Amino acid sequence: MPKETSMKTRFLAVLLCAMILAASALAQTRRGALSGRALDAAGAVLQGARIELTPSGRSAASDGQGQFSVSDLAPGNYTVTVSYVGFTAFKKEVAVAADSLPA
Fold first, then answer.
1. What is the per-residue pLDDT across 55-80, written as a single tens digit (0 to 9) for each?
2. N or C: which end of the chain has fewer CB within 10 A?
3. Domain ranges of the chain
4. CB 55 within 8 A of CB 78
């Protein structure tokens, strides 16, 4: 086998390995997101409600329409707690999947 062909083969093999490793690294960094709307029992918007995710410790505040979004979350299970002055805190268990997007 000529030396030039051998070098090309080695280069292609190294390039292929690098591409496989890069794809593996990208797959490990897939993140998810959680979004929703904070409303009271009557359906009224809770503007400025605090939304906290446990165990991540990430939090958000609802906007003027009661909507909130938390992105860049590791896939897994979370407890979402919604707090608002004058109301009892609301808690719910949710699962965040990789590549989930805010609605």
1. 989 999 999 999 999 998 999 999 99
2. N
3. 1-30, 31-103
4. yes
Contact indicator for 61, 69 with CB cutoff of 8 Å: no
E strand map for 1-103: 32-37, 50-54, 59-61, 67-73, 76-83, 90-96
Question: Which residue, chain included where needed, has tokens 């000529």?
Answer: 2
**Secondary-structure class of domain 31-103 per CATH:** mainly beta
Which are the contacts of 94, defined by CB distance < 8 A and separation ≥ 6?
34, 77, 78, 79, 80
pLDDT band at 22 (very low <50, low <70, confident <90, very high): very low
